[in-house]
Amino acid sequence: MYEGPIQDLIDELGKLPGLGPKGAQRIAFHLLAAENAETNRLIGALTRVRDDVTFCAECGNVSADRLCRICSDARRDATKICVVEEPKDVLAIERTREFAGRYHVLGGALDPLSGIGPDQLRIRELLRRLGNQEDGVDVSEVIVATDPNTEGEATATYLVRMLKDFPGLSVTRLASGLPMGGDLEFADDLTLGRALSGRRVLV
Ligand SMILES: [Zn+2]
């Protein structure tokens, strides 16, 4: 244990996901030795994330405005909606450059043991989007791109059940080939791109 502020910082950093006590200590001492300008930039970024980041009213992605960059881009195909768990999955799919449609961010996956049911996810918002016409265009395909693990599969199964009665809507799922049990964001661009272009029809 160190004394005072440096230990407080190590404790706070240690609570962050993916950062063990060693990593927390390394970052804390890096910041202690850093120039004021560097720590000020970090403080500024943290403050802006706390105060300025909002979520897109349409898709739920993180956004600086009411609508995110993708939802407000008229060139994006409004007939296709790719459903993902988290904003980081939007980035992962964007990196593949295989998808020109829109997204819907659920905010997680079904996980009854942790108390996450359909009402905790943005599923109602998805159904509302499908019910309304987006920009006067009917959505013709929903691509379920939840993670290839137990919770992601359970979420996909649930979504299929909710979506199968929408007339004229096809529901597809990323092709297999993604590492099972994994997180979408950890798939390399090529594998994820192939999974996207080889998606299979569920309904
Ligand atoms: Zn959006």
UniProtKB/TrEMBL annotation:
Keyword line: DNA damage, DNA recombination, DNA repair, Metal-binding, Zinc, Zinc-finger
GO biological process, one term: DNA recombination
Chain ranges of zinc fingers (C4-type): 56-71
CDD domains: TOPRIM_recR
InterPro entries tied to this protein: DNA_Rcmb_RecR (IPR000093), Rcmb_RecR (IPR023627), Rcmb_RecR_Znf (IPR015967), TOPRIM_dom (IPR006171), TOPRIM_RecR (IPR034137)
Short name of any one Pfam family annotated for the protein: RecR_C
Family matches, as SMART domains: TOPRIM
DNA repair in keyword set: yes
Ranges of residues in domain Toprim: 79-179
Key word ATP-binding present: no
GO molecular function, one term: DNA binding
PANTHER family for the chain: RECOMBINATION PROTEIN RECR (PTHR30446:SF0)
Family in the record: Belongs to the RecR family.
Described purpose of this protein according to its UniProt entry: May play a role in DNA repair. It seems to be involved in an RecBC-independent recombinational process of DNA repair. It may act with RecF and RecO.
Protein's name according to its UniProt entry: Recombination protein RecR
Gene that produces this protein: recR
